[in-house]
Automatic annotation (TrEMBL), chains A, B:
Residues 47-293 form the Periplasmic binding protein domain. The lineage of its organism: Bacteria, Bacillati, Bacillota, Bacilli, Bacillales. It is found in: Cell envelope. This is Ribose transport system substrate-binding protein. It comes from Paenibacillus methanolicus. GO terms for molecular function: carbohydrate binding.
Amino acid sequence: MKKLLLLYLVLIVTFMAYLYTAYFRESDDGLNAVTGLHGEREEKYVMVNFLTGIDYWKNALKGFEDAAEALGVSVEYRGSTQYDVHEEAMVLEQVIARKPAGIAVSAINSEALNAAIDKAVEAGIPVVMFDSDAPNSKALSFLGTDNYSAGAAAARLMAELAGTEGKVGIITHPNQLNHQERTKGFDETLRGEYPGLELVSIADGKGDQLESEKQALTMMRLHPDLSGIFVTEANGGVGAGNAVLKEGKLGQVRIISFDTNKGTLDMVKSGTIAATLAQGTWNMGYWSLMQLFHAHHERSAGTPDSQDSGAFPLPAYVDTGISVVTRANVDRFYAK
Amino acid sequence: MKKLLLLYLVLIVTFMAYLYTAYFRESDDGLNAVTGLHGEREEKYVMVNFLTGIDYWKNALKGFEDAAEALGVSVEYRGSTQYDVHEEAMVLEQVIARKPAGIAVSAINSEALNAAIDKAVEAGIPVVMFDSDAPNSKALSFLGTDNYSAGAAAARLMAELAGTEGKVGIITHPNQLNHQERTKGFDETLRGEYPGLELVSIADGKGDQLESEKQALTMMRLHPDLSGIFVTEANGGVGAGNAVLKEGKLGQVRIISFDTNKGTLDMVKSGTIAATLAQGTWNMGYWSLMQLFHAHHERSAGTPDSQDSGAFPLPAYVDTGISVVTRANVDRFYAK
């Protein structure tokens, strides 16, 4: 009889547990009614780029992983370890062969990967570009910095740091389109919004630290009253910082640099570089995965079918934005 | 004894049901492990615009609703029924007072709503702009058509439809920035990519059907060998269509128009207008809600905290893209 009672007790507790579970599933934060936007663990999205080991990509991969975590899908990180067009193309071909749910690619050059990208898209594997576009490929969209806007932001920041009257210069990489756009955005914004801030010199720093240092020294000697230099890439920013230190012009010549490698951040921390512009690399990774997920699920229940609902192809372009890094917030930007 | 057996049976079945439920929760599409990206039903996102009743907004609202459905949150649609700046500003103030989770605004003009938008953002209510921006407000981002790119797409389409040699014209609304950008994108793309396709005339159709018809007639008489007209807005497209019919030039002068109101779609269906460009209004609504959701949840578990993880502010701009509408796919674009 005691045994029977015990058995009863066990079964009754089980029954209550069942009732509780059933009730819980109906009424907690909506697991039953609302499963939210999510995929399957087996759904694998791959990020492919070049120079895979550099710090610059860490936040992009983090964004890609954060989105995958939120959506319950898997990611993989591949690419060429070297700055090697053929290696990146080969890695991309290998990735395509395994038919992943989607691929986010940063192109080492704007044409070399077109054939591979087009093959993937034609085989029904969604491909989006991030950071460096392949505009003539069939990739579904591009997520990256609007360089003209970034240059315009640098101009407004310069006016804030150096005042709205005076002389400023640019050190850039004039043969690359992204640097031309940063220069144009800076120049046109000064002309349009700060006519008192005169752009007296645009120098070619060749993307090299020592050459940029030389150009900055020349610029400061030709224009002793120079109050700021916008450097459109990171090596040149450090070079210009060294030039300002050598000339003893710290506090007179404000440097605005680009990107957030360690050398640049150290100079922001010490005050040699007044500010640098951080690209939205986390956004590039996060929203790339978000777009790929939507493309992959286009015909499933979670997202509307373009045939039926008027859903559109993916947004063609996402400006992932820039953030201003100064001494006040620099610690957040060191790669982890 | 029979009763006892029955009771046992019931309890055993219950126990098995419990085991099954527990197992199911662990192993089905991951409801337990993965709840996906989702909010709460009480989380309300509001779309605010002007001329709320027009067809143009239907797809934007559909996108907004589709995203809310996917994320398990609620939406509301508000705005001014008239083309009335004060009415839209008043409605926006009312919406802000009820502290929604986020607001997507299409601004009737680029300045009038700034105070209200800034107030909302300062109070911690995320605001994004869609379709019509308020660039000097504190809104977190803008989602809309890149009009320069749309004009460039129209130029490439013209070369496809009218061939790469010949004369073409534009009928536009030269005082509005979005129309200037469409014109510039068309013009520069022809010069850069199709030097054999000459832009012989840019006329002011004043956004009016009859005026545009008049301008199209004049253009065809001045240039009897004209092979195409790009009209940058919908009323003018119908006007140009009527002009082509009157002149008996159907098949010789290809018209490319803009947007997808009924008059335009009917002319695409009949072949009078060769193609029209549909804006990505569904994308505007869908990705606006997606961004607002992320801004609202910034400090919750689902999305990374910008302080900790390197997560970025929202993307600054999303080009929601355009789609080419021809006789082949026109039926999909009628408002439902």
